[in-house]
Write a structure and sequence with these properties.
5-stranded antiparallel β-sheet, mainly beta, 4-stranded antiparallel β-sheet, globular, Neuraminidase
Amino acid sequence: MKNIKPILSFSIAMLTLISCSNDDKNTNDPGTPTDPVENNSPNTTYKPAFEGQTRIGGLQTNTAYEAKVITSTLASPWGVKSLPDGRLLITEKAGNMRIVKVNGEVSAKITGLPAVNSLDQGGLLGLCLDPDFTSNRMVYWVFSEATGGGNLTAVAKGKLSNDETKIEGATIIYRTTPAHPSTKHYGGRILFDKSGNLVISTGERSVLETRPLAQSLVGSLGKVIKITKDGVAATGNPVFTQGGALPELFTYGHRNPQGLAIHPQTGEIWLSEHGPRGGDEINRLQAGKNYGWPIITYGIEYEGPAIGDGIQKKDGMEQPVYYWDPVISPSGMTFYSGNRVPEWNNNLFIGALSGQHIVRLAIENNRVIGEERLLVSEGQRFRDITQGNDGALYAVTDGGKLYKIDKK
């Protein structure tokens, strides 16, 4: 198999900073403020709820780094995670898992997975490894499933065989409700929290009929859920007063959340969320909170009208930490906890689909203090990004590329 390995080298000076006097201020000073990276006109005249909630000052990385294409032969990869030995386990939208070596060698399809409905936005989506993977070889993943009642977001688990050719004992442990014929907005990220529970993001399925269900606590559309490895509600989940509220719910009021990440210092869960026309969001999740969709939003309908009452703030509903207008379509994301590029420490990296770049957000005290756009010249829809065991970042694109991004 022929691999394409262009190297993109960057040696850039200048970083941004918004001064902060708090004791837990990041010691990696990001430098001098620059203009915001977003200079296109917004879709709305909506005003942010606080300074720095959107169009923050720009960042540029001081440390010289490079981006290498490890392989260009993947088929619409959706999720990527590092195996203990440094290789990458990757899902492909059509329903395949593959293992990629750092030299670009791509494995054959791993068999044994349940069938996926890969129409439109569906397919084999996010994945994660069991915290005890080295001893039990268990993998967990999200996929869109076609059922008699319609399509839904499902969660499955299985054991990667010792010869790495198949998933053994694949079992579906959770299904969202209700099912619907829509083929959009499945959500689809999954990770383990610090307590060993699974955290899964689900979409509200896009159509006007299901959109309000993001606010309903008797279904699991437009939610973040927490379950055990066996698929039951995690102990310690918030208790809602609404009758019939599902015990697995952690947060609600989400549109199409395609990114989840754990902050390396606080252990808190952060989420990226697709807005409509404008209003892409980054949220810091707090148990039991309502994140507002579709009642409050910084976006509008694709055709131009306001959504609902056209409001952006309401008591009892959380504000995003950050939002974009126009959209970038944020997908998979990860916090950087390495030391190879010091100024990236504890920064959030997000794959942008329509934006065709990787976002770097510097964060202090749960507020964004600067934004950088990486790999813009590549023209790729970045679907997911993860930090490898070697401290480098690895990102996959809808066009089938796997990048390694690391100190030069």
